[in-house]
Amino acid sequence: MADKRKRRRPADDSDSDSELPFKSKLKSDSAILQTLKTLKDSAASSSETKPLTLSDLNLSTACREVTDRSLSSVQSSIESLILSFAHSILAGNGFSFSVPSRSAANQLYVPELDRIVLKDKSAVRPFANVSTVRKTTVTTRILQLIHQLCLKSIHVTKRDLFYTDVKLFQDQTQSDAVLDDVSCILGCTRSSLNVVAAEKGVVVGRLIFSDNGDMIDCTKMGMGGKAIPPNIDRVGDMQSDALFILLVEKDAAYMRLAEDRFYNRFPCIIVTAKGQPDVATRLFLKKMKTELKLPVLALVDSDPYGLKILSVYGCGSKNMSYDSANLTTPDIKWLGIRPSDLDKYKIPEQCRLPMTEQDIKTGKDLLEEDFVKKNSGWVEELSLMVKSKQKAEIQALSTFGFQYLTEVYLPLKLQQKDWL
Amino acid sequence: MADKRKRRRPADDSDSDSELPFKSKLKSDSAILQTLKTLKDSAASSSETKPLTLSDLNLSTACREVTDRSLSSVQSSIESLILSFAHSILAGNGFSFSVPSRSAANQLYVPELDRIVLKDKSAVRPFANVSTVRKTTVTTRILQLIHQLCLKSIHVTKRDLFYTDVKLFQDQTQSDAVLDDVSCILGCTRSSLNVVAAEKGVVVGRLIFSDNGDMIDCTKMGMGGKAIPPNIDRVGDMQSDALFILLVEKDAAYMRLAEDRFYNRFPCIIVTAKGQPDVATRLFLKKMKTELKLPVLALVDSDPYGLKILSVYGCGSKNMSYDSANLTTPDIKWLGIRPSDLDKYKIPEQCRLPMTEQDIKTGKDLLEEDFVKKNSGWVEELSLMVKSKQKAEIQALSTFGFQYLTEVYLPLKLQQKDWL
């Protein structure tokens, strides 16, 4: 009925079909689905070849990585470590930790792996030294607390950990930093230590998985979707008939896609961390990509921050480079909104925003980053952004109607394989 | 096994049962459940008596409120309004809106209702006036956009609305403000306009409800829980065998409760907005309380901000006082962490934080608020907080062990009916 009205008086409705740019270019959904099937098959076959690991590379610099480990193996590592300390103390030698350095100087971007890893520099942290006695004590205490978590098989947050001994830790930055040290010392991921971050992400679409033993069907999660669990080790049994994963930066775009049930028209899994990616969402994305072998397409704002978010999913953050193997999802395609889309899709001037000085600086810094430089398409887009000094949010597409995103922009992008 | 070890060497484990303060006071779960059943029955019977509405009160000041309305009724209201404008224009009188004032001077706390409402002052917004022509145009445009949403039966965010006509709206504060005006003009809630806020809250526990047609069982949502849908009008069919609703301020405490499946030991529904309450979570809580007739117990930080959050759930925010009837949940009990708990539960000094000057000022301001003053227990607690100049987070309980919250603190609180 709504459509009929519009056709009778096309001039007074800015949302009318005849005015929607590029709608006429859209082919049938089955043609677009064929494109997506090809994309999926190529993603699946490329993941058949065993992914490169650090040890395959024979790098001149030795690097270190942590792995996911079971609770019982973490527990026995802690027990062996403490036992060795006891022997050392009884032999009159005191004890000290060997702590991998997590400083910038000890980080390395490995192009073959397309992520940041940690080199092998370590520091000795002896107990019997005025300058390190406190930090050694904190490290020992954190180890003790992690050991308790292993025994009880429960998860806690970094904040919980801090409050367990405020007197010793003094402030949370200290216990947080030592927690990362402990990950490196034990060679396991922070998730393996059962210390989790607050959950933030949501997922909806063609995915079934188990969360703590409950089977979740993400096509039956209404508009709200399923909150991504904070503890990835209790997530399993992933099944899907999706052709791709759509990674969305923002909540508002996610909502549009969920309400329109975009995943029923083009079978996909839609996921968002609502802004800056959190550890739980990164682990969840990685697990989906690995288990389901699906291509990942990203929909982010056309600004340096959007690209930065994409890079955190793709290559990891410097802060947690020791765990980049588990946290990063390689080969994410930049679907949109890309700087070149602004003119291509005729986004009106008033819906574009001028970049601030800080934006431009961030953009220029990103152009120097290895993970951008290795993709010439990205360099071109980012250069265009910095040159035009214009940015735009995903929401800018609403200027052509609230459903332009789901009805024209995304289908056309998919049809034209317009990702980089 | 863990327990056995502890018993053999009780001295070296700060988490051992013998040291857990007040654990010995705990009665059996069935005794506590009996207490909760009494609480639930009294909540149910008090909601049998029809809740007071503005019209019952015969206030000397006339007040106005908005109601939830169907899309088709919103649509026909808009059409009648525009039709009346057309008549007025044809009669040579131009047109103008009558816009209810939302300023502080037009707000009133009604103790009988225990919430803030809007008085009946209105302003005329004529088109043919230099000072109001722009705002009248914006108002008309927003009405047109809402009309489109009615025709299409879709939901959008305030951000989407803004981007539909950036040139006219200039910045989002303008379209947001006029959107609230439009709610007041049409006498309906913002949800009825199909403009929703981003979702933030999660729910887990003994609740089954439908989200956009999908049935959701919140006992089968693992640890992550179910994201609360942004559009309350697509939520329905609530069923529950819970005895109470546990409203939690923070994510970390929510996670502890979800992982320990606290709702299976004490049947309840656990809900959090992860900080400042958003509209979607407030509407969801209100709907649960109304449909399920359950008591609501709140677990917030012991600081002025925690009490403020409680007040937003309970009495509404000043900004949206025109919609307080739909957004507020009356009779929320303050379970903890209360300022008196700090000494009662022997929270160590180092886990308490000194209040800042701003905290103390906020605390003193709250003491002047009507909604605090009407509850003498709250006044006492808040006075104690301001006097002691100490605050504490829920997480501070972790000092007695990670599960102290779920295993001792909350059960004991429930057993002792220790809420205000």
TrEMBL record, chains A, B:
Residues 199-235 form the Type II DNA topoisomerase VI subunit A all-beta domain. Homodimer. Heterotetramer of two TOP6A and two TOP6B subunits. One of its GO terms (molecular function) is magnesium ion binding. It comes from the Eukaryota. Its main location: nucleus. GO terms for biological process: DNA topological change; meiotic DNA double-strand break formation; meiotic DNA double-strand break processing; plant epidermal cell fate specification; reciprocal meiotic recombination. Residues 244-414 form the Topoisomerase 6 subunit A/Spo11 TOPRIM domain. Its EC number is 5.6.2.2. The lineage of its organism: Eukaryota, Viridiplantae, Streptophyta, Embryophyta, Tracheophyta. It catalyses: ATP-dependent breakage, passage and rejoining of double-stranded DNA. InterPro entries: Spo11/TopoVI_A, Spo11/TopoVI_A_N, Spo11/TopoVI_A_sf, Topo_VI_alpha, TopoVI_A, TOPRIM_Topo6A/Spo11, WH-like_DNA-bd_sf. Component of the DNA topoisomerase VI involved in chromatin organization and progression of endoreduplication cycles. Relaxes both positive and negative superturns and exhibits a strong decatenase activity. Belongs to the TOP6A family. Residues 1-22 are annotated as: Disordered. Mg(2+) binds at residues 249, 301. It is found in: Nucleus. Coiled coil: none annotated. Its cofactor is Mg(2+). The active site is at residue 163. Residues 134-195 form the Spo11/DNA topoisomerase VI subunit A N-terminal domain. HAMAP family: Top6A. This is DNA topoisomerase 6 subunit A. GO terms for cellular component: DNA topoisomerase type II (double strand cut, ATP-hydrolyzing) complex; nuclear chromosome.
